């Protein structure tokens, strides 16, 4: 079972340029001290719903650093895997172990999940962040820093529902970052955004990774995966068909399903 971290990946992760920012994303905790959820070890993870096996004895190891892109055809189980890892769904069988510990509420609170369609409060942009900052500890200065960081510094008073799709997704990301997560799960966050919005979201994700946040990102966008990935997990029929450093995966995917997928052939 392979285990990926930045040592194995060489300086690929370090070589990615970090967008210059006037405000640090995480002004209250600039180091990764005390952040110990990883490595993640998953063994025999199984999810059966209505008599159908949707996640099928899945094994996965994730190291403490970098950005893992999860790819695979429609229905492969990518979203279900992310929800299982985040603790939103209870598996039928198998083991998820965060640095040797079983999942618990405290683990889920140290992770954040951003969906393809942002789920926002029907209140102002600022109120959407204050809601989280009140629970997690954070003041107005932190809220303003986060909004500037995601390019919404001038929209604080606007109703969140009036934001464009790309802006809503950036607010969802700001809210996720406000929880100062050790792991940020993103499930196709740019699937319905225009190219400029995609670039902005990717910048924010790169910054978060550079600040020490572990990224697990589901995408169908091969270009995006190439731009962001340190390693790629390719899912097929509820199992990990391949897990490889990004350079190797994109050069020569070894499993047939991944090769077909990358060549644009339908994978069932
Ligand atoms: N609550 C559910 N009950 C029954 N089946 C489900 C449920 N949720 C998902 N599934 C099925 O599980 C399979 C995997 O779903 P999942 O959403 O994880 O796929 P995915 O890899 O994210 O696909 P896509 O790329 O289309 O988003 C699909 O066949 C889906 O229909």
From TrEMBL:
Pfam families reported in the protein's UniProt record: ABC_tran
Region annotated Disordered, chain positions: 1-34
GO molecular function, one term: ATP hydrolysis activity
All residue ranges annotated as the ABC transporter domain in the record: 40-262
UniProt keyword terms in alphabetical order: ATP-binding, Nodulation, Nucleotide-binding, Transport
PROSITE patterns reported in the protein's UniProt record: ABC_TRANSPORTER_1, ABC_TRANSPORTER_2
The family this protein is said to belong to: Belongs to the ABC transporter superfamily.
Protein name: Tungstate transport system ATP-binding protein
Source organism of the structure: Tranquillimonas rosea
